[in-house]
Design a protein that fits this description.
The complex is a heterodimer of chains A (about 260) and B (about 70). Chain A is α/β, with parallel strands linked by helices. Chain A has 8 helices and 10 strands. Chain A starts with a strand and ends in a 22-residue tail after the last helix. Chain A has one domain: Aldolase class I (TIM Barrel), CATH 3.20.20.70. Chain B has about 70 residues and is mainly β. Chain B has a single domain, classed as Roll (Ubiquitin-like (UB roll)), CATH 3.10.20. Chain B is built from 1 helix and 5 strands; from the N terminus they run ββαβββ. A 5-stranded mixed β-sheet of chain B has the order 2-1-5-3-4, with no helix packed on it. Chain B is globular. Classes of the chains: A alpha/beta (about 260), B mainly beta (about 70). β4 of chain A pairs antiparallel with β5 of chain B, so a sheet runs across the interface.
Chain lengths: ~260, ~70
């Protein structure tokens, strides 16, 4: 079973709550995904729509909330969002995101490290979203991050695991759980990440924007499980040479 | 008197406390976090914190996100 900061998770699929067509679809899709931790963002209340409250839709007994700091462009903004999340009753868990460039949404490694150091001191359980940089993963781990969240590809792109080589190194070196986040657009992408030995994956866009988000959530859950079982079972070695699956002996009668 | 609430200029009566103002806006106090003049208020402070002329109020809540 996966353990992060002392908390046990049966599901290795974490969900997001953005981009769903309605709160009802989100609720049903999250239930179908089997996930036990979901990300949420913080924004200004829409004063014209005061009853629009995601917390009234999601069961906090069922899901651990992982507030994110999306929208933060530097460590200072991320820390401010983190404090607001904690004051909102979001708890100590935090997905740290520092993305100064709206075009790529790639995380700023220096500001992310700085914010991690500060927030760990403040008592947060920090899960930093990071580029797939093995050295940075170690630095974040040393700074007290309870997990690292390297990206497969940029947020919302559905491009899959473009950072395979780096994520393999991160997984080999990390002492904390590795959660592949961002860009996982198809069940095959999460299966690939899990086969590589990722501890978990986080999926939002691919489920939320699917034609049928509820069935897609189920497909992702199955792929996560398949990939994990494959990893634990030990995959065969990759070879450039062909090797017959049928016996080479016993063909004397043919020649 | 005037305050700035979520970036919008708003006219309010003087002597209003945060709890009262949230009620006027139709907001469940438990569903928002309040930052007043750059300081995050605890829920316990909502009942006692009085808004001042020129107060800058930010009302924040959780929304869907990844």
């Amino acid at each position: 079973m996966l353990t992060i900061a002392g908390k046990k998770f049966r599901s290795r699929l974490f969900g997001g709550t953005g981009k769903f067509s309605s709160p009802e679809v989100m609720k049903e899709a999250l239930a179908a995904s089997g996930c036990e931790m979901v990300t949420v963002a913080l924004r200004r209340v829409d004063l014209n729509n005061p009853a629009d409250d995601i917390m009234s839709v999601l069961d906090r007994e069922r899901y651990l909330f992982l507030p994110n700091t999306s929208g933060a462009r530097d460590a200072g903004e991320a820390i401010r969002l983190a404090c607001l999340a904690r004051a909102s009753g979001g708890g100590e868990w935090l997905k740290l995101e520092v993305t100064p460039d709206p075009r790529t949404l790639l995380p700023d490694p220096i500001e992310t490290l700085k914010a991690t150091e500060e927030l760990v001191k403040e008592g947060f359980k920090v899960l930093p979203y990071m580029n797939a940089d093995p050295i940075l993963a170690l630095r974040l781990q040393d700074a007290g991050a309870v997990a690292v969240m390297p990206l497969g590809s940029p947020i919302g792109t559905n491009q899959g695991v473009l950072t395979r080589f780096q994520i393999e190194i991160i997984i080999a070196q990390a002492q904390v759980p590795v959660i592949v986040d961002a860009g996982l657009g198809a069940p095959s992408h999460v299966a690939e990440a899990m086969e590589m030995g990722a501890d978990a994956v986080l999926v939002n866009t691919a489920i939320a924007v699917a034609g049928d988000p509820v069935r897609m959530a189920r497909a992702f859950a199955m792929a996560v499980e398949a990939g994990r079982i494959a990893y634990e079972s030990g995959l065969g070695a990759v070879s450039k040479e062909a090797a017959p699956s049928s016996p080479e002996d016993g063909l004397g009668f043919l020649r | 008197m005037k305050i700035l609430c979520n970036g919008e200029a708003r006219e309010i009566a003087s002597g209003i406390r945060v709890t009262e103002y949230l009620n006027q806006l139709g907001l469940d106090a438990l569903s928002v976090v309040v930052e007043c003049d750059g300081k995050i208020l605890t829920r316990e402070e909502y009942g006692s914190h009085e808004l001042q002329d020129g107060s800058v109020l930010e009302l924040i809540r959780f929304v869907g996100g990844g």
